[in-house]
Amino acid sequence: MLMLTYSFLALAVSSAIASPQLATSFESVWQIDPQTAASTVIADSFEPNLLSGLAFNCDDGLLYGGNNDNLHQVDPETGVLTTLTGGGDFFFDGLAYHPIDGHLYAVGGETLWRIDPTTLTSTVVSSTLGTSALKALAFSTADELLYAGGANNLYSIDPTTGATLLINSAVGFTIEGLAYNPDDGFLYVGNNDNLYRMDPSDGSSEVITLNGDFWIQGLAAMAMDCQVCPGDVDGDMTVDFTDLNFILSAWGRAESGIGFIPEADLDGSGLIDFNDLNEVLQYWGEACD
After folding, report:
1. Distance separating alpha carbons of residues 269 and 45, to the nearest angstrom
2. Do the Cβ atoms of 234 and 242 come closer than 8 Å?
């Protein structure tokens, strides 16, 4: 069996679907079911290693991927690839999209870049991340942090300052691809032909599949509707008394306990507390487009 290296993509065709689909790319792009790891080719015949980093821009519905200083765009509906730049002011292995500020983030060596997907201009956020082994990147809408992996380690990175925190130095495998699923709050991790579900708080993981029909080199979460509305518990795109009531009704409840409301755990801490209440109050009265 010919083993190839792929970038991984997570797809959700609708915000009503509880679990986004996943996909990988190297010479091909696959759509993958994150529960069963069943895969379907959605794009084919790419140059090897062309998309070693992969991100989904939920604002334009397109994939962004590449490696080194090359950035490409892929239409997931048609599989058509468009080269955006073959010599950008960045050099990356991992790529992620930040749906709140509307920028791509790229990591390579010890440097984190912020990239405008429209103008392709880039800004160095930090050139001193403290580790040069990062190969994968994902953005979490729960805590608005980037998560990065490389070698046997999982890190969190503040996208504003580049401040890096080591979460786990012994995850048990090299993190080749990384994606955050906003529906369940977990990271999805690819390593060769293996797929894992990982807790971003401590880097613990469980196996989804070993020896899948893919070879993962990068990973991205793809939701067709990925609007982010901070403080919105009930999903109506408005922060109001309904959201406040959800917080209060589940006040003090811990994850897996009776009365816990996952949607009310806005910071993903596993406990409904003042952090969640403060987020509702901070965005009180705001309506998200």
Report:
1. 42
2. yes
